Amino acid sequence: MASLSPSTDLKPVVGPAKSSLPSKIYRLWLFLRSIVAAGWRGASLGALAAVVLYSIILAVTARFFSFAGSIFEVVLGIAMGFILVGALASLGDPLLLLLRLLTRVAGWALKPLLGERAAKPYKLLKRIPALLPRTLVGVTAFYLIMLMINPINGLLTPYLLLETLAGGLIGVALKGGYQRNLAVSLVGIAIILNLGLLYWVFSPGSDDYLVKTDPPASAPLLLNAPDPSLSGSYKVQTLLYGSGNDKMQPEYNGQIALKTPTVDASKLIPDWQGLGKDLRNLYLGFDAHNLPLNAHVWYPEGEGPFGLVVLVHGSHLMQAPSEEGYDYLGQLLASRGFITASLDENFINGGWFGDFGLETHPVRAWLILKHLEVWRTWNETPGNLFYHKIDLNDIALIGHSRGGEAVALAANFTNRYSYPGVPSEIIGFRSPVKAVIAIAPSDAYRYGKPITLQNLNYLVLQGAHDPDVTTFAGIRQYQRVNFNDDLYHFKSAIYIYRANHGQFSNAWGKYDYPFPVNTLLNVKPYLSIEEQQQIAKTYISAFLETSLRGDQRYLPLFQDQRVAPGWLPKDIYVTQFADSNFVRVADFEEDYVRNTTTLAGGSIEGNNLKSWQDVDLPMRDGEQKQDNSAALLGWDRSNNDQIPDYTLSLPQDAGQLWPVTPDSLLAFSISPNTNQSQSLDLSIELITSDGVKVRLPLSQFAAIHPPLVTQLKKLDLLDSVAKAGKSEIVLQSYQITLRAFMASNPDFQPATLRQIRFVFDRVPQGEIYLDNIGLEVGANPVISSEDQKAKLNP
User: How confident is the model at residue 572 (pLDDT cuts 50, 70, 90)?
Assistant: First the structure.
């Protein structure tokens, strides 16, 4: 095959140029042609080196055949990289041959019309060396395959371009016939480009965009309770239990203290079949018919009975066990008197043989129930270590990521004998679940309708800087927790500005993706893993103390983190809260006209507003919804002296429907629209049936948080979520005691309250979402103590 030599075929022409082009343009063309002739080989080799190295990295980090050992992984990854790119590059030869054949035939056919000019395309193709089409075809095919596998592989684009340019510069330096200083400079530029790439790849990113806020004002009340993140008085013991058939994790074979039966999940995972099934079975040592029940357990020494906390991880590489990542929670909770079991569900996670995707959601939940059955059996078996040590009426479930969705589904299963899409014979276990905690959960499982939860306590934690669960998916499950019995229940959602996904687990850590994709993550803004786990310990421990032990001293923490200074790291926290004492006046979920309240007989009126509409709250990806509606209210007093307001009038018989007392709380939720840049404030005005008015600024009680801008990747171009929106609409709940209004005006009598008015008099313009307006009535545990009342009404 003919070759293209930079020293002959494309050598710059010396002497007069015979061309119709202006001489300067022609000389530039000759110069560029000489550059291409000198550098194309280096550019081609640079591009090929880039894709080979990228494929090696992918092969190694995917942990192909990890059971064979890390050295074998590296060797196999290198071999697969060369084989893959070589196979793709070889496609360039038949393509070039086909093009030559077509141009040869076309030349013969057009020769009578064009003469010798008809043969020029064929002659030009004959001069193209094989390396060029091989590079073009191989690199392009590899690039397209990577994009089809995962769009995140678009990160290959800048890497490929840079290495092509660097290789071309080196090629020009070696073959261009330039002076030594210029050649050295070209090589130096190529080296600098690669060093710059390495610096960017391994840099943590930037945090200069972070929202800066003034230190939060002191809360009106301070908790009179011990720090729940501190170890308790119980001495902690640990053990493993398992089925004894796990080849992937041998500790569940020889080190188990208690033996468990295997379970048959074949009806739940019908796709556990084919070659992927065989490889998975070979790796694990079992199949879907005999899944193990394995767990790490931390338990307190003592007579008991103790509450039971079951914790389950989410989706991760199955070769990297995840259940050990919550030891910080297991140790803490056991020291405080809770038996804590972290379940092994690694075998249904993804690996080099595939991922079951959404099909794992019901089996994850079902496995939780099978573990609970085992615990119930142990509690009833004389001679067992846990005989009569477990209070089966005090059960809490904690889940992380897909596990956070699984615990909601499991709690739902305990109240049903059937569920759409799930075989009825596996939903027979019934046991009360008092509390569910979801850590950065997914919310994807659907069989006709979403999961609803009834009459239990629910807590969800979510980081704003989560590049895995990039939207606040757990807020939808929060909306679907309902209370309709006579017991006290509550739910809370905590949005943590600088928290990510993986640092809630020691096994997952800072990087939520494997290398090389993790090099795109903007990790500089993150809290440290110690800080993030301090948040988890504080909220989770306080939640369990409240839910399983009835210690209501911790309830205010879930409404306003300021009540416990020093317990939590410095960050921005956005909290939502609702309980069974809440009487809803307006939540905007009905398909009524906008001037009608949820509470029958009430009305809504808006005056001098720039905008007023009821909207479905979107997620920041621009595609999903929050399963929640709110009123979007905007105002602009720049050219208008009239004060805008939004007024809700209660029905005439409101005082007979429920008693409004000084201890009642005015409750509502607000979020600024994501286009806000300035600080917002407004006033709350309450009006009684006899015309008494009291107006107080919202900032007297708490600020309206600004939109929490995030940057999940180092470049927004690589982040599809950032293209849709850089901040999530997250509502902040406010609860204001009516005693504060009485303190401002002694004539104000809560029992005669008739109107709740939001007055936009504090800043000239703005736009907010307003939702869940109502009153906390009855025996409210948050402000029931006399010392707290005294602080509000000295």
Answer: very high
CA distance 560 to 544: 18
Backbone angles phi, psi at 587, to 5 degrees: -130, 0
Phi, psi of 358 (to 5 degrees): -65, -15
pLDDT for the residue numbered 112: 84
Closest Cα partner for 310 from 263, 228, 369, 230?
369
Give the H/E segment covering residue 775: strand 765-776
For 674-688, the pLDDT digits (tens) are: 888 788 999 999 999
Report, as an integer, the average pLDDT of 36-46: 77
Cα-only R_g, the chain: 33
Instruction: Give the range among 146-155, 203-212, 226-235, 243-252 with minimum mean pLDDT.
Output: 146-155
Residue 20 has pLDDT above 60, yes or no: no
Structure confidence by residue, pLDDT tens digits, 610-628: 999 999 999 998 888 999 9
Sheet holding 306-312, edge to edge: 258-259, 236-242, 295-300, 338-343, 306-312, 390-400, 435-439, 457-463, 490-496, 573-579
Integer CA distances (angstroms), 190 to 41, 106, 183, 213, 370, in order: 15, 42, 11, 43, 59
Q: Strand 457-463 relative to strand 490-496: parallel, antiparallel, unpaired?
A: parallel
- The SS3 of residue 252 is helix
The predicted-structure confidence for 369-416, as pLDDT tens digits, reads as follows 999 999 999 999 999 999 999 999 999 999 999 999 999 989 988 766
Q: Which residues contact 644 (CB under 8 A, 6 or more apart)?
A: 606, 607, 608, 609, 610, 635, 637, 759, 760
Indicate the residue type of 490. F
pLDDT of 9 reads 40
Q: What is the pLDDT of residue 10?
A: 39
State which amino acid sits at residue 253.
N
Query: Computed from CA positions of residues 355, 357, 362, 366, in that sequence, does the dihedral angle turn out positive or negative?
Result: positive
Distance in angstroms (rounded) separating the CA atoms of residues 707 and 673: 7
756 neighbors 736 (Cβ within 8 angstroms): no
Tokens (6 digits) for 408: 């909601």
Q: Which of the two residues, 427 and 497, has the higher pLDDT score?
A: 497
Look up tokens 């064979």; give the residue.
68
> CB neighbours of 144 closer than 8 A, spacing ≥ 6?
none
Query: What order do you get walking across the sheet with 693-697 strand by strand?
Result: 603-607, 645-649, 753-759, 683-688, 693-697
Per the CB < 8 A criterion, the answer to whether 66 and 319 are in contact is yes
Q: Which residues are registered as beta bridge partners of 233?
A: none
Burial class (CB in 10 A: 0-12, 13-18, 19+), 355: middle
Q: Are 437 and 310 in contact (CB under 8 A)?
A: no
In angstroms, rounded to a whole number, what is the distance separating the alpha carbons of residues 729 and 346?
A: 34
Tell me: pLDDT of 543 over 80.
yes
Contact 392, 399 (CB under 8 A): no
